[in-house]
UniProtKB/TrEMBL annotation:
Residues 1-191 form the Mutator-like transposase domain. Residues 309-352 are annotated as: Disordered. This is Mutator-like transposase domain-containing protein. It holds the Pfam family Mutator. Signal peptide: none annotated. It comes from Ooceraea biroi. InterPro entries: Mutator_transp_dom (IPR049012). It comes from the Eukaryota. Residues 309-336 have a biased composition (Basic and acidic residues).
């Protein structure tokens, strides 16, 4: 649930118009600005990159007075500037509470994909055709499994690390050298070797896919070591994400698309409407319209109800295991197709 939001702007159209003529009559400008100041849409001084830092720190500072709550956690995306800004203002010093940083699992997962793609780019020969190569499809699988390892063990750093390395060794296993010691045991295991072991059918079991080559394993091992460190995994405890925040942002941009220039007032209205829908659905929008003097008919009520039901149905459908597996399969198919094109066509573009 959204309990606070802040809109920052470094531009005011009225001030911009006055800037071109205020030197001609500074007294008149000062008189005008004294009246205008309270409604001026410019509420940020500094670079655009500092907007997020200032907005977040201001919301932390006013949380106790405005809402009677303390934000004890900050879920970040890897950029530490905003978190440093919070620590610098120390909003809850009198309560002897220090805000702690948690990592967004989604962004941490993306780091694995980025690191693996960079490794493939800078180490010629580990990608491309051939058994055990670091293909785009393999990168997608390793990235997804890394994220799942964190999400499935939100309460234990050791269990997270074990699950992360399970993937590495699982992908390095062969019939001659199985390395499934970290894979979950039992008949319900995702690991087919562990499942066969539990069922007593190891004698007839064969690995369907060849292991990653020794060269690939040597190159990606430091990546696994970095992304399974105590420091990082401790910040991943709880398996927190920024999904809700990104969902709200997406809703805001449906009212005020990014590719269209609008003033701060439009962004404010878009934000407030998005918060209402995000928190309570579409019915409160009818109340807003009623306050504005719009008569609400039966059709409007039916439409709001249908939109709410559609949101709930879509959310429930997307949360099912089957739906998640389908999305994962589609991503892997796209990745495999892209990998095929790259190998068939060869390098078509490069620097220089």
């Amino acid at each position: 649930k959204v309990i606070d939001a802040m809109i920052k702007s470094s531009f005011c159209q009225a001030c911009n118009l006055w800037n071109n003529k205020k030197d001609d009559n500074i007294a008149k400008y000062n008189e005008w600005y004294e009246i205008h100041e309270e409604t001026c849409s410019r509420n940020h001084e500094g670079s655009a990159g500092k907007m997020e830092i200032d907005a977040v720190t201001e919301m932390f500072v006013r949380s106790k007075e405005k809402h009677g709550v303390l934000y004890v956690k900050y879920i970040g995306d890897g950029d530490s500037k905003t978190f440093r800004g919070i620590l610098n203002v120390d909003p809850y010093a009198e309560d002897e509470i220090t805000v702690i940083k948690k990592e967004c699992v989604g962004h941490v997962e993306k780091r694995m994909g980025t690191r693996l793609r960079n490794a493939k780019k800078h180490n010629k020969g580990i990608g491309g055709k051939g058994a055990g190569k670091l293909t785009d499809k393999m990168i997608g699988e390793l990235t997804t499994y890394y994220g799942l390892a964190i999400r499935r063990h939100p309460d234990s750093v050791e269990e997270m690390r074990k699950a992360i390395w399970a993937t590495y060794y699982h992908k390095s296993s062969s019939d001659n050298k199985p390395q499934h010691q970290n894979c979950p045991p039992g008949e319900e295991s995702w690991c087919k070797w562990s499942k066969a072991e539990a069922e007593g059918t190891l004698a007839s079991f064969h690995h369907a896919n060849p292991p990653l080559t020794d060269q690939v394993l040597e190159i990606i091992k430091p990546i696994y070591e970095d992304l399974s460190s105590d420091e990082l995994l401790e910040r991943c405890l709880g398996a927190e994400t920024q999904n809700n925040n990104e969902s709200l942002n997406s809703l805001i941009w449906t009212f005020a698309p990014k590719h269209l220039h609008v003033g701060v007032k439009v962004v404010e209205i878009a934000t407030f409407l998005a918060v209402i829908i995000f928190n309570k659905g579409f019915m409160p929008i009818l109340k807003v319209m009623n306050v504005m003097g719009v008569n609400i008919g039966q059709q409007a009520m039916m439409y709001a109800n249908s939109r709410n039901e559609a949101r709930i149905t879509r959310s429930e459908r997307r949360s099912t295991n089957f739906s998640r597996d389908q999305r994962m399969n589609r991503r892997e198919e796209r990745s495999a197709l892209q990998d095929f094109y790259e190998q068939e066509e060869g390098p078509l573009y490069g620097p220089g």
